[in-house]
Protein 1
Amino acid sequence: MSPACRVRARVFDEALLDREVEAARASFRELQRRYPIVVTRDLDRARDWIRSHGRGSERYGLLASSQAQRLKPHAIDVRVDVDPVQYFLSPVTDTRSSNYLEDAATEFQIQGLELDWTCVTWDADLRSTADGWAYHSFRGDRWEQVRQAERRRYLLNAYRVLLTRARQDMVIFIPPGLPSDPTRPPEFYDHTYEYLRRSGVEAL
């Protein structure tokens, strides 16, 4: 990514997380040819998209917030301890490699590092609502609201890290949810997907 494109990507990420929809849309229009960002509700499709873009020795991988506790139905468990050395350096045939697209690195493992292509898996810990972001933490068998300002800033910054780790392109996966599961009903995710679309992100 060129320095100018990197700056535009940062501007987009900041506008998106700061809820500045028009600024995000304007930034996205400048980015989309050189730094495509797409969103999908289908994780397998997101994986196929990343695999189709990666070339040669390029690295790609799954990313998730450390608070993304309800991605487990999609075989993403953030409690699994990812070894950064294996994640970033192992060959594509190694199941511990980022390129295998099984283990998701959190903001802790990816901080200060980059991949060529990323799939950001966005859980219900950070949700878009009509009033702005809603912050949650999964405890026991339910999501609880995060009320402390410091913890809210931390959660928002975790997504800020995840959204800025791709050198080339990024796909964002928003789960579809499941009506029969009270820990992940569709309404926990639908508004976030719609917000990303309003902000200019194209559907895959």
Protein 2
Amino acid sequence: MIRTNLSTRPFYNERAVHLWLGVIAILVAAATIFNASRLLRYTTSNSQQAQAAERDERRAKELREQASRLRASVDLHQVEFASTEARQANDLIDRRTFSWTELFNHFETTLPDDVRIVSVRPRLDKDSGFLIIVTVVARGVDDVNAFMENLEKTGSFFNAGSVEEHVNEQGQLEALLQTNYVPMGAKTPPTPRTGGGKGQQ
């Protein structure tokens, strides 16, 4: 005799099915969240890069405009003059006939006690050779004249004269002197010019 109760409900493993469905749902949710976060990150990054590129373009435009203004404001004659001065200075320094030591030895032996040298600037003139421009501070005109006379007595300085003179804040005479200079070993001295300098007597 069959004793099976056919009216009873068959048994299924529902918990395992629910568990797997839950795991799949979690994985799908995690993947969705990950993809959304990556999308948001890339969107933000692209926006920041676009803003940075825009800033760089504006900055580059400003720099180009500034460069154009600077080029327009450059005085070509002044640049050429500065280049010429630089070439002359380099030529002067490279010439073996010029010696700073020799020049300052002359100053040391000819400088009066009441005269002080502030600056020295040599220059190479195509016609007259070496031209020395000296700024001195002295007690008076007589001291400056004595210094120039002492220079010319050495035989290495010619046409010494004062180009500009004024009294400084300390009440001392500040004079800009100019003189031709023939270093030892140079071939010929420059031709003396007519007339004395501003401060000569």
Protein 3
Amino acid sequence: MNKVLLVIGDAAEVLDTMGPYLRFGEDYEVVIAAPEKRRYHLVQHELAAGWDITIEKPAYHCESDIAFADVDSAEYVALVLPGGRAPEYLRYDENLMRITREFIAADKPVASICHGIEILAAADVIRDREVTTIPKCRYDAEFSGGIYKDEDVVISGRLVCCQGHTEISAWMKALAAVIEDYVNCTAGKP
């Protein structure tokens, strides 16, 4: 069975994480990767009336299956980078930067949502590529050479970016098609 690598860390957004986990678990083995193999705390973000920023609340816990240092990107058909506050810290992990660059260099499907763009920006893999993210992360994309589009979902080659969790259904549909195309191409199917 083909495997999808799903990245988490403490404060990964629960919908951004569980949406891909459940959707791709239907057709692929989803492997959860993190800085260490342990239990992580997911969070729920909500933009409440009268607030300028999101309110963060504790959500589910999630066990990682593998540490970033042990990931061999050749074993996976896709990489998924959820949002939340986790990417702010994960982008400093050298092994995650290696993994992200390897997926992009191999032209494998890579997906980000919300703050996941911070990982792509830190890995320096979005230069001259069209991307999207939540508006408050626009500068992360632009400062690293990405071409920001204010759209729900943006596909650039095999890179599939999404603004936020209200667009998860469209993001999953787009990513599923990109992964299926990649798997068929690598299997020699038309």
